[in-house]
Amino acid sequence: MIPDVSRGNGIRPLLAYLFGPGRREEHADPHLVAAWDLHGAPDPGRHPGASVGRLAGRLDQYAQLRAAELGAMPPNRVWHCSVRAAPEDPTLSDEQWAQVAHRVARATGLASQEGSGCRWVAVRHAVHHIHIAAVTVLPSGARPGMHRDAMRAQAECRAIEAEWGLRPVGLGERTSTSYPTSAEIIKAERHGWSEPSRVWLQQQMHVALTEAADLDGYFAALAERGVIVRVRRGEDGAAVGYSLARPGDVGAGGQAVHFSAGRLDSAMSLPRVLHHLSTKKSAEGA
Fold first, then answer.
1. Is 234 helix (H, G, I), strand (E, B) or coil?
2. What is the spatial distance between Cα 283 and Cα 255, in angstroms, rounded to a whole number?
3. Backbone angles phi, psi at 122, to 5 degrees
4. Contacts for 45-49 with beta carbons within 8 Å, 24 or more apart?
5. Strands (E), the chain
6. Which residues fall within 8 angstroms of residue 61, CB to CB, at 6 or more apart?
7. What is the DSSP pairing of strand 129-135 with strand 119-124?
8. pTM of the predicted model, to two decimals?
9. Over its length of 286 residues, how does the chain's per-residue pLDDT go in tens digits?
10. What is the distance between the alpha carbons of residues 88 and 54, in angstroms, rounded to a whole number?
């Protein structure tokens, strides 16, 4: 289970996307599973007469009051966090996702243990994830203390994984497989790809390894499958690492977006690939 945190200034456009059909009609039954107060949060997905505009207005109420005092809306007031379970995890119920949302809201400082916190909602429009959307303004007009919110959200998700027996998903070398961020998923939808680049590259790595007899053969198999391979070499010319990119996946500067192999899947780091190829060669020789 991995959270992806971002900030912005418009709560209504975010809600319109979350409750909308998605860029490829992929959103199914968008609805609220949790909120700062479900009785005070109109659900555009389930309640007749509710609307995105009405919900946005309720979430933005404290910010609007503050703006009336200061003459401008508080900057970067919108907080967005998608929380995704691993695809192989059991499907969580709305009630379970509600527990996840409340725990993340408390851990990050959105919800207060004492008194009123920020206004937030959790929207579910897919099987394996929810989106928490919030306006980070307290009833007093002050801003909540949310230092290192992304790390605190991740720590809470790891605690939930351990308690519920879900697959542990961390960052970097702590995880066996990394999962796409919301930005990567949206980019895939924009390009019309069936899966984000991170997932596509992971698939190509595993298939290429089954086809290869040695390291050069592995890199060649990746290239034959359309993967852009960048090999990092030491002073002696030997490979010491590698990264991968998907054709057409470019950053703001127009350069290909490369992913470190070990961060895509720690089982596919260069040392582990070499170990697998060596073991495979020994077994075939036997």
1. coil
2. 41
3. -120, 120
4. 45/19, 45/123, 45/125
5. 2-8, 31-35, 78-84, 119-124, 129-135, 228-233, 239-250, 256-260
6. 119
7. antiparallel
8. 0.62
9. 888 888 888 888 889 888 887 656 678 889 999 999 988 888 998 888 889 999 999 999 999 998 898 888 888 899 999 898 877 788 999 999 999 999 999 999 999 766 679 999 999 998 888 999 999 999 988 888 888 888 889 889 989 998 998 887 654 334 345 667 767 878 888 888 877 898 899 889 988 998 899 999 999 999 999 999 999 999 999 999 999 999 999 988 899 999 999 888 877 899 989 988 988 777 766 5
10. 36
Token digits for 203?
A: 């698939």
CA atoms within 13 A on the CB side of 209: 21
**Starting from the edge strand earliest in sequence, which strands make up the sheet with 119-124, in order?**
2-8, 78-84, 129-135, 119-124, 31-35
Reduced to 3 states (helix: H, G, I; strand: E, B; else coil), residue 26 is: coil
Contact present, 146 and 108 (Cβ < 8 Å): yes
* 216: enclosing H helix or E strand: helix 215-224
- Given the structure tokens 């290429």, which residue do they identify? 208
Residue type, 94: D
Three-class SS state of 125: coil
Amino acid in the structure at residue 122:
A
Domains with residue ranges and CATH for the chain: 2-170 (3.30.930), 182-285 (no CATH)
3-state secondary structure of 50: coil
Q: Which of 134, 126, 125, 124 is nearest to 99 (CA)?
A: 124
